[in-house]
From TrEMBL:
MF-aspect GO terms: argininosuccinate lyase activity
Lineage: Bacteria, Bacillati, Bacillota, Bacilli, Lactobacillales
Domain Fumarate lyase N-terminal: 7-301
Entry-linked SUPFAM superfamilies: L-aspartase-like (SSF48557)
Associated pathway: Amino-acid biosynthesis; L-arginine biosynthesis; L-arginine from L-ornithine and carbamoyl phosphate: step 3/3
Protein name from the UniProt record: Argininosuccinate lyase
Gene3D superfamilies (alphabetical): Fumarase/aspartase (C-terminal domain), Fumarase/aspartase (Central domain), Fumarase/aspartase (N-terminal domain)
A Pfam entry, by short name: ASL_C2
EC numbers for this chain: 4.3.2.1
Length: 458
């Protein structure tokens, strides 16, 4: 029987009851529900809304329930309508009539909102820890490859040389932004405690919202009760943070998939992170990376679904909002799973430095440096650019690289060319001399790694 059943409202049909039920999904809010209920009960006692000793009994029983749940002694009754109903039913089972007082001055509308905020905050903490491990893993990989030259691409065409460390640190940056985004979201979540908003219009009981705000570790209470119970912005924001994060992981996965192909062979995956084919014995498939890439689809989907659920809802609470939780939980679970894989995934990626170097040596990746060489000698860059283009065309016709083309041939194109051109276009020089802050020069990348590691320890 639902907590709201009475003479006025008869029971639901069996099918409607199970359709309406959310306990399978919201059972994971149980500990948050106990925490929110604890703060509410303490407040009811302090304000004399219910006798203080009864409030204390409720509060300590809620703590006991948490302990019993953690030891496995208390099992959630899945026949209840939702987790809030279960908490009240269990409390009443334990305390009799006193237990029934916990819902005084409260609605499931502010209850679910506060639970979801407490839960999201905790999950964000977990996500941040996982992200830190992911960032540290990219930094660790980078440390080992600060002098490993590889092609940098634009339009997936060889563009300018970078190092594998420089590449890894690009992902460290992305994940770092993801981390700060989550920190911002958490800050905003904690800025508005919805508890005390009641169903939509607070209560005629003298609820002390500042007190529950302090007990629950919020920085302030929500200043409009109507908004407090209608608001799911934080959930959309979190789902959006996770979408951006999953986009980053998906790009990383995509590159790994391409680079581990026979065509590139820049990297290979150890057997621990690749699968075989049931028919083609030669295959090593990057399934984990493909899943990393693929799962971003469901994370984006969850975000769109939550936005769509919310978009037409009249204030305040509507049952549609029950749907939103399942979507958010799926994004959180998916991302936690993905992040947990990341450090080992990186560790188990073998880098083929020779292949990376060979690919850098082809494709005129030092063409910009040839043009820069002329520009440094006073030739306007646009002219230097055109001359270098002509040289490349010549090299292609004669089967030269910029390094193997004789000096005399260079001088046919411009008399500013001297023997130091070979030093200027040397792959190592062109990579390691990109010493501008944020560039691929090994000392710059080492500084970046150090900067990032310090940030992680802040
Ligand atoms: N199970 C509900 C949900 O998840 C709890 C809030 C119910 N409130 C209500 N007015 N029916 O949204």
């Amino acid at each position: 029987m639902a907590i709201w059943s009475n003479k006025f409202h008869d029971s639901l049909s069996e099918l409607a009851y199970s359709f309406n039920q959310s306990i399978q999904v919201d059972q994971r809010l149980f500990e948050a529900d106990l925490e929110g209920s604890y703060a509410h009960a303490k407040m009811l006692g302090k304000q004399g809304i219910i006798p203080e000793e009864e409030a204390d009994k409720i509060a300590s029983e809620l703590l006991q329930m948490k302990e019993d749940y953690q030891t496995g002694e208390l099992v959630i009754d899945m026949s209840e309508e939702d987790i809030h109903s279960f908490t009240e039913a269990e409390l009443t089972r334990r305390l009799g009539d006193i237990g029934k007082k916990v819902h005084t001055g409260r609605s499931r509308n502010d209850q679910v909102a506060v639970d979801l905020k407490i839960y999201s905050k905790n999950e964000i903490d977990e996500l941040i820890l996982l992200l830190k491990d992911g960032i540290a893993a990219f930094c660790k990989k980078a440390e080992d490859y600060t002098e490993t030259i590889m092609p940098g691409y634009t339009h997936l065409q060889r563009a300018q040389p970078i190092t594998y460390a420089h590449y890894c640190m690009a992902y460290a940056e992305m994940l770092y932004r993801d981390m700060t985004r989550l920190e911002d979201t958490k800050k905003r979540i904690l800025e508005t405690n919805p508890l005390g908003a009641g169903a939509l219009a607070t209560s005629t009981f003298p609820l002390d919202r500042e007190y529950t705000t302090e007990l629950l570790g919020f920085t302030d209470y929500a200043h409009n009760s109507l908004d407090a119970v209608s608001d799911r912005d934080y959930s959309i924001e979190l789902a959006s943070d996770l979408s951006i994060l999953s986009m980053h992981l998906s790009r990383y996965a995509e590159e790994t998939i391409i680079w581990s192909s026979q065509e590139f062979k820049f990297i290979s995956l150890k057997d621990t992170f690749s699968t075989g084919s049931s028919i083609m014995p030669q295959k090593k498939n990057a399934d984990m990376h493909e899943l990393l890439r693929g799962k971003s689809g469901r994370v984006y989907g969850n975000l769109m679904a939550i936005l769509t659920v919310m978009k037409g809802l009249p204030l305040a609470y509507d049952k549609d909002m029950q749907e939103e939780k399942e979507l958010l939980f799926d994004s959180i679970d998916t991302m936690q799973q993905m992040l947990a894989l990341l450090p080992d995934m990186l560790e188990e990626t073998i880098i083929h430095e020779d292949k990376m170097y060979a690919a850098t040596a082809e494709g005129f990746i030092n063409a910009t440096d040839c043009a820069d060489y002329l520009a440094a000698k006073g030739i306007p860059f646009r002219d230097a650019y055109r001359i270098t283009g002509d040289i490349i065309q010549y090299c292609l016709e004669k089967d030269y690289t910029l390094e193997s083309m004789p000096l005399e041939a260079y001088q046919e194109f411009h008399d500013a060319f001297e023997s130091d051109i070979f030093e200027a276009i040397d792959l190592q020089t062109v990579t390691f001399n990109r010493k501008v802050a944020g560039g691929p020069a090994p000392e710059r990348v080492k500084e970046h790694i150090e900067w990032m590691e310090n940030k992680l320890n802040d």
